[in-house]
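PROTOCOL LOG
Step 1. Enter all chains and additional molecules of the complex.
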Amino acid sequence: MKNWRHQLGIIIPVLVVAGLVLWPVITGNNLNRETSFTILKAIALASSLNILLGYTGYVSFGHIVFYGFGGYVGLYFVNEQGWSIWTGILVGGIASGLLAFLLGKAILRLRGAYFALATIGINEAMKAFANNFDLFGGPIGMVLNFSVYKAYGGAAKALSMTFFIMAGLTFAALIISHFVRTSKFGLGLLAIRENEDAAEVMGVVTPDAKTWAYVLSAIIPGMVGVLFFFKNGHVEPPLAFPLNSSIELLVMVMLGGLGTVLGPILGAFAYQGMRGYLVTSDFFKDIQLSVSGVVLLLIVLFIPAGAVGWLRRRIPALRRVLA
Amino acid sequence: MTVILSIQKVSKNFGGLQALSQVSFDLPEGQILGLIGPNGAGKTTLFNAINGVYPPEQGRIIFRDKDITRSKPYHLARLGMARTHQIVQPLNELTVRENVMVGACFGRQNMSLGEASDVADEVLEFVGLTARFDQLAGSLNVTQKKRLEMARALASRPYLLLLDEVLAGLNSSEIEAMTMTVLKIRERGITIIMIEHVMKAVMNVSDRIIVLDYGQQIAEGTPEEVANNPQVIEAYLGDPKLAERLMEED
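Step 2. Run joint prediction.
Step 3. Record the structure below.
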């Protein structure tokens, strides 16, 4: 009974994402599929960032580095070494996880603003590295051989397949997020978020817990990177390491609600919806990012707990359902 | 009697300030040791040294036959040492029960979430916070937060409990209740070191008292011996009559 209640928190997130996956399938519309892909990608990335930002309380301004790095590594093996997309995705995830592990050992001892600054530095350093690394094509990047798609029944079929892989990765991100949130490991992370010194005194092995949180938050972005560049057909440094996307992810998580499974999903939905409107509007299309900035400011000032946090606080009965 | 904690010539400086100098004592299992001294005497620094927050520059600390001088706080928690903080450190956005579960999960017995939840309920009952289990810790008042600190520490099933001014800021009936709680904790076989300014309480509860002043250990003995030690009265209280008045107070 108790265990069953624990699982309640995952039901709404799974239903929302399932609806999002089914929508283009039912309507059979390719444009809807593209929209859905973009939102799923945002949900997967935001949910991953939430493990670090929402559960552990560490602000990463450069989280997109894992998406870019994993994507580069995976695409290299798919394109240059002829590996399948499946192994490519796996390798991309592992590469990002490893990067996070090493970085974690180095920079997770920093707290607050110092950590946040270090993450920006890492993103820029990685971009500079990709720009100068010949194996990854330097500033030109890598262009996927069109023949790679043949193995998957041509470009159209490959595109449709990437959509379902994206859906799978998004579900995986949700399940990881839910598992962390309801586990003992997750309780340790929440303790670190609330008061790292007190958590240490209570026995949370903070260096290890933080490192694993960082690794867990990096794996799915690495996989998503491989998939996206595979679908996109090419990768280049500015596409792989866009700092503004890191900040957009922060806005999504904050908007929906830090430290909840559902929050990043709602945040990704709302943000992508807003972005879709802004980039197509005559007035806002050039200043789309400044609107995001204002939104972030308003959230921090007025609803720091985000939409889900706000609801949980207002209506305690919802606490069990909106985990 | 087995010695649970042995402090051997421990010294600690902060810059030019000698916060602790050559502090030594042995603590037998099952006792309550009172640690007193004026503000800035080094009491909390000694806790931080024992607890691994600031390792000492010199000396050794032996806990249950293990040298723990350079151990980290989280290792010590696993070995069975728990503490409360002078300035309460609640995990504000977690519920009272979750706070206590953190102590249980990551303490000596390395419990699962299920076990920790049962232990949390039991410990919350013991410290009298059962009614508030579902409240966010940040919404408690100071007395309740102090009890929460104690509950978290107890949930880790420690051998040794370091209590840093759990009575400060409480009114006299609350002090009485808290004192009873401390005695009940000892009945469970837990050894206690308590830093305290409320003289009457610490004199009543402690088996032995150590007095620190400017990082020096100036006296050690039973409560009576310490209270009548002229050096303590002079160095610690300044005015001998003040000592008597403090004993009457509260």
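Step 4. Note key features.
The CA atoms of residues 102 and 211 of chain A lie 9 Å apart.
Chain A has one domain: 2-319.
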